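User: Here's a chain of 380 residues. Predict its fold as tokens.
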Amino acid sequence: RAPRRRPAHAVGLRAGAEAAVAATASAHAAVTARPRARRPGVTRPLRVAVIGARRRRQGTGEFMARDLARAGCEVAAVVGTTPASAREAADHLRAAYGVAPAPVTDLAQVVGEVDAVAIASPSEHHLPALELALEARRHVLCEKPLWWAPDLDLGPAGAARVAEVTGRLAARAAEAGRVVCVNAQWPFTLPAFDALHPGARAGPPRTFVMHMGPTARDPVAMVQDSASHFLSMLEALCGPGRLERVRVELVGDLRAPDVEPGPEDAPTAARPGLDLACAWVHAGGETDARFVLRRWPRPPRPAGYALDGRAAERRIRPADYAQTFEDGARAVPVPDPLTASVEAFVRLAQGGAPPDPAGLVRGMTQLHALVAAVGRGAAA
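Assistant: Prediction complete.
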């Protein structure tokens, strides 16, 4: 059965209707006129434009903006697809977090007035924003995956395109000395895993199993949206590596009506999804890795991982989104990994850390390889 494709979407950031020209011009003036305070001996705050600060698809933009502000940045602008959506996002950030960004509909209006761009729009819109931000020599924090395109071929031509496009972005960042960070948050949970299982991480694990509960019904979309987490964990645990012996098994019928999960349902219960297995070959040897995805219709969605059989199941308290790791006997708090990811980006951007061009290309080419494997399995 051929995988269902999501309809192609426009890949640009809309400039807004003519009726909004006066509003966006005044917003641009607000950004450029805003004072940039400096204190003696203290680096001035990074000024950041956030793209996609609404939670239209349960995205992270709102919380990126919150955490950037808490990390000492000035959230100078929010970029929306329409004047109304940009204003809605700006008003919400102001009311919820005391952040006062200017609402605009085109990154080009403000990219010259900020130090960094945070991209939290849907992945099919990432590439134009990345190109514009790096052309302007700005640091970038980008929601995973770094970019994707609805028309991306899953064969060799697509693999070549991914390597070429990502290589060009990475070279541009390296030439400008700018930081590009992909917001794949799960490696920032490893300190909590260490608290739950002291001493368990003496080296690369022999086995690694990760499970998640995405909402997509298309197996290709499931992996395209989620596998950056899996890959980032493998690299954090084992160092750079390569994928070998990738195997995919589709489970159940993703088109079937949802059955609401009960409170005691196991995260890997008999729900539709897929199992992806591979070997991660790295400098220290080889890790047998498995990525288990089961469609979960509503939050809070299950997630967790196990290293050599030592499990850490994430639990979320819906009232305040407080997170814990549990192993059946113990529980430890998990500091918000998004906050940690944003703070790491700010430190790198302020410190002028050299970018990792090879890491960007490696992550995207490996993501394409996994998605392609799932595409072949779904079509079989």
